[in-house]
Amino acid sequence: MIEGPYFVLTVVGVLGTGLVAGVFCAFSTFVMKGLAALPPAQGVAAMQAINVTALMPAFMVVFIGSAALCAVIAVVTFVLWPEDGTVELLLGSALYLFGCFGVTIAANVPRNNRLAGMEPGTPEAVAYWPAYVSEWSMWNHVRTVAAAGGTVSYLLALT
Question: What is the spatial distance between Cα 74 and Cα 69, in angstroms, rounded to a whole number?
């Protein structure tokens, strides 16, 4: 069983990846569906406001902090190569770093940036909104599963 500071790192990793998975799960299960039900101009304006608010420290500390922690866990695991939990720790780190953090950077952020450059009521924004909701949501499902998978993997490393 993992012990000492390594145990604490992993428990904090469980907490961070689990919190992020929960946020993304909320978006996948009801937030985006609620926004999609609004008239496009209202949905665009609401999502633009959400995207600005998401950059505040409350979420960013958890999201980026979890990525940093997952990187630390991966490096420490490679260096120490513990007898127990090695595969689970490396898998949990990879799932979060690539499937959650990486997908955010590669797929969700570019869509957010494009949406941010639009005026909510313009024909361009109204035309883009359905594609944005569909594509952003699909990638959000991927991040949700990856973050939750990272959480489960870290939990398994603790057993």
Answer: 9
φ, ψ dihedrals at 3, nearest 5°: -135, 170
Counting residues of the chain whose pLDDT is more than 70, the rounded percentage is 100
Which residue carries 């940036």 as its tokens?
A: 113
Query: Crossing angle, helix 4-26 and helix 57-80, to 10 degrees?
Result: 140
Number of domains in the chain: 1
Q: Whole-prediction pTM value?
A: 0.95
**How many Cα atoms occupy the beta-carbon half-sphere of 125 within 13 Å?**
20
CA-to-CA dists, residue 140 to 3, 47, 105, 156, angstroms: 34, 14, 12, 24
Instruction: State both tokens at 73.
Output: 């866990």
The answer to whether 62 and 19 are in contact (CB under 8 A) is yes
State the average pLDDT for the chain.
96
**15-46: string of b/e by CB count within 10 Å (b at 16+)?**
ebbbbbbebbbebbeebbeebbeeebeebbbe
